[in-house]
Amino acid sequence: xxxxxxxxxxxxxxxxxxxxxxxxxxxxxxxxxxxxxxxxxxxxxxxxxxxxxxxxxxxxxxxxxxxxxxxxxxxxxxxxxxxxxxxxxxxxxxxxxxxxxxxxxxxxxxxxxxxxxxxxxxxxxxxxxxxxxxxxxxxxxxxxxxxxxxxxxxxxxxxxxxxxxxx
Length: 167
Hints:
Oligomer: single chain
Largest sheet: 6 strands, mixed
Strand order of the largest sheet: 2-1-6-5-4-3
Structural class: alpha+beta
Radius of gyration: 17 Å
Number of strands: 6
Helix content: 25-40%
Shape: globular
CATH architecture: Roll
Number of helices: 4
């Protein structure tokens, strides 16, 4: 007989995440880790950001599959992002925190001043929405990266070629 949980996902990793128990301590630990990550990002503190990430972390723009791996990759991601959008602001709309990690929805505003994903800057103000999953690495007790979705896709060069950033 197949158990109810087993029908939810074929990937054992997903089932393991699903079965994680919520405790007050784990919730607090993950929330505080996310807060430290967010404060470091707001302060443009790359070392502080890396301190919240597992060594094998992965940053991925899910719509186009661009990835940055490990601490070196995460540092490159943030250096490229903050160089392209030095005044970037994330205005949280929704957040969910659980034993699997953190999920956020945010409105983003910035001035596009540097190259991003091979596209030259417009120098214009841009606005977009992001959905970001911050998976939690239970062994490392750190975030294992970010899985980022950007809307509208064509805004940040994520759509098929020919579409690029608009201000």
